[in-house]
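Researcher: Batch entry, complex prediction.
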Amino acid sequence: MKGWSNLSSNRTKLLSILLTSCIIVVIPWVLRGYPTLFLLQLAMNIAFAQSWNLCFSYAGLLSLGHALFVGIGGYSAVAICNGGIPIHISILVGAFISTFFAVVISPLFMRLRGVYFAIGTMILCSSFQYWFMHWTEAGRALGLRLRFYPEYSLESCYYFSWLVAFFATTLSWITVRSRLGLAARAVRDDVDRSEGIGVPSLLVRTVIFAISAFMAGMVGGVRVAYLLVVDPSVFSFELSLWATLAVVLGGAGTLIGPILGGALITLLQHVLMGLPEISMLITGIMLILIRLFLPGGLVSIIKKASLLLGVCRRWLLS
Amino acid sequence: MAALVSIQKVSKNFGGVWALRDVSFDIEEGEIVGLVGPNGAGKTTLVKICMNYLKPSSGFIKYRGLKITGLSPHKTCKLGISMTNQIPKVFKRMTCFENVLVGCIYGAGLKRNEAEKEAERILNMVSLSQKKHTISGELTIFEQKLLDLAVALSTNPKFLMLDEPLAGSTEKEIVQLVSIIKKLRDQEITILWIEHVLSEVVTYSDKIVVLNEGRKILEGKPHEVVNDKRFIEAYVGEEIA
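Model: Structure tokens for the complex:
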């Protein structure tokens, strides 16, 4: 009875996490091929959405060029792996290079506030797209090809991408609950005031940005591991936009939101693949509808449903 | 004994307008110093310079004999300096408890569990314990004012600047705020109190400094200052209780 009226109790949460993990592990054995590919992309969308959510919802950093870190992670992973290093280590190193880059640009970018930060990151990401388009060593428009590595299989990529999604979610969870997360939220609400009560706001934002870049860098690495190629389109504005959409549709400021949003946009990406000319139009309409009727995102449906369930249960028992 | 805070020849120029001009005075440890003056006299500018939110055009501030001008605000805070705001500045999407907790951890440098106890104590002191888990953006303006004070106190300040704490409050609210300020004095926190409501400042200050058009025009014991001709001139038309 208690479990019903309080759906968010710890035991229920733990059980649902365990159940989901079991399903995720079993799926490639049961549903081979397309469903596995679909869920692989879903995992990557979740990880990328978590990365963006951490920046935006918990530190107030509206990044519209988050694909930058996916790209840097991806290109680095290919370059390192082609040098003869195992793929998983390459991905990890690529993610660290992404992180390092985020730290390097932070002193300059953190001076831009609000919408100017968004414009700055957007421009930086596009300039990278142009740079890689013309950089001969990086293969220009064709990009870089990953040499075929022995462990390559859809299943191994699938498990690795879910590992990254799980890692990104856990890392977000830990960060948000830590003192760093507390400080980041204070900085998000009022930069000057937080400074005045002892929060080193530049450092806090830099660390959050760096953690987020690490997650995005991992996503870039896994993306390359299963596509076997990375080209300048990885820096496209659309890719950054998908993370934004996932978070806004799912519910910003929660950890479940990016998961739900990630699932929804993966579905959208697959359904709309056949209709490229109107795909963005439909996505846009969806965004407007959700903002109008579910301002809290899909997460609020769960909250409402669990409330309703509790009410029904009580009504049935009385 | 050297003064706790020494303001030395501070000037501030905002694009050709002098907000402050050669202002100097000392604040002794344990004192309450009232800083009064008409609107636009440069009172808030002076507080922001003390907190290092603003850089003075010339002059500097000494705290415990050390020059602090040029530090970042978060380092200034760690020395034991804190301020409240005329318009409450709280972290609007966080609960009252979290608002205070940030300062306890980062400003006062406490461990998490000690910080939580300290946050409880401070909220209790400003009588906001009931609203502990309320998102601060949903508080009334007066409650936000109390919370702003609690946030300022969370950093365990030795020197606290109050920027017009009583402005816009009702009689009852003034009584509550003044009783909190009295408690702070008993904890030996040195206070620089900016105010428009003169009667309260005159009653509780050890010293009063009067600013007018960016210049210090008077400094002295409260009853001497309020009877001075220059002070009355600067405040023409204001009722003095």
